[in-house]
Amino acid sequence: QRRGDVVLLPRRIERITDYPGSEVDAAISPDGRLVAFLADRDSLFDAFVSPIGSGRFENLTKGRLPQLLNEDVKNIGFTGDGASASIRVADIASPASVSLVPVTGGSPRPFLGTAVMAVWSPDGAKVAYHETTPGDPIYVSDSAGRSPRRIHIAEPGIHNHHLAWSPDGRFLYFTSGLPPNE
Fold first, then answer.
1. Residue 96: predicted pLDDT
2. C-alpha of 106 from chain center
3. Mean pLDDT, rounded, of the chain
4. What is the pTM of this model?
């Protein structure tokens, strides 16, 4: 179908899991072949990845990261090349950080030591992330997390979450404001 200058492609809705409990924060790999999500199927939230439509699931974290879920931010995604899942890691004794886990499984590898979430540009060349320091500063760096450049900081008390690149990679979108409980 065509609507003006926009071509509408057919869409298909497909159930990915039928786990008891909750599955949250689904993300699709850049090539559209994999889905990653958090699920509390095994009592704690773990990070899972699956080839779409396969019915096969790889538990990437296997209970090693007990505090994966934070309802205020996006907790899982993919690197620009889709080879690893990016996972927000936190515990009571340390601030949030982002680690990478190969989609084939393996140990989490620290990536951004002070970031809450990370999103790669559509071409995979840049990564944007925000920190938990006052004003939730937002940074853009190269795809390996080097040479960060702060592009935005809010007034203390204001939060900047849910970063997303425009399809052409020219813009970075995010939510900004006070959390509902404040």
1. 86
2. 18
3. 89
4. 0.86
Output the six-digit token pair for 30. 């850049």
Q: For residue 26, count CB atoms less than 10 angstroms from its CB and return exposed for 0-12, middle for 13-18, buried for 19 or more.
A: middle
Q: Rg for the chain (alpha carbons), in Å? A: 17
Dist. CA 50–CA 102, nearest whole Å:
12
Q: How far apart are CA 118 and CA 114, in angstroms?
A: 11
Residues in the chain: 182
Mean pLDDT of 28-51: 92
Please give the pLDDT value at position 67: 83
Task: Tell me the DSSP string of the chain.
Answer: -EETTEEPPP---------SS-EEEEEE-TTSSEEEEEEEEESEEEEEEEETTS---EESSTTS-TT---TTS--EEE-TTSSEEEEEEEETTEEEEEEEEETT----EEEETTEEEEEE-TTSSEEEEEESSTT--EEEEETTS-S-EEEE-PPTT-EEEEEEE-TTSS-EEEEEE--TT-
**Separation CA 169–CA 6 (nearest Å):** 19
**Cα–Cα nearest to 113, from 139, 95, 125:** 95
Distance CA 105, CA 63 (A): 13
Could you tell me if 88 and 96 are in contact, meaning their C-beta atoms sit under 8 angstroms apart? yes
93, amino acid identity = A
- Least Cα distance to 132 among 169, 83, 98 occurs for 98
